[in-house]
Hints:
Layout: E1 4-6, E2 12-14, H1 17-27, H2 64-67, H3 75-83, H4 85-88, H5 102-113
Antiparallel strand pairs: 1-2
Helix pairs in contact: 1-5, 3-5
Amino acid sequence: xxxxxxxxxxxxxxxxxxxxxxxxxxxxxxxxxxxxxxxxxxxxxxxxxxxxxxxxxxxxxxxxxxxxxxxxxxxxxxxxxxxxxxxxxxxxxxxxxxxxxxxxxxxxxxxxxxxx
Length: 116
């Protein structure tokens, strides 16, 4: 499954699930888990994140900023957060420099979207 995403620029990217899985493993899996046995640890688990209210999992201690952000995760909000977590949710506990490459963000989102 490929997903098309519109970013702030007029560029449209088709996400590649396999590339997204590789990126998740390299950049995200040290804090976040996915899959049938996923649970929150250093970061919240990310299964079925699309449509989830930010800060809503009961098994993770989110920052006040995340709980009060009012975000419901979708492609646009996830892309913004992945690109710059601190700008998207000032005060977030997530310590991550972000990913600025739209192609890599699209790939990562395609992978996350595949984890229903």
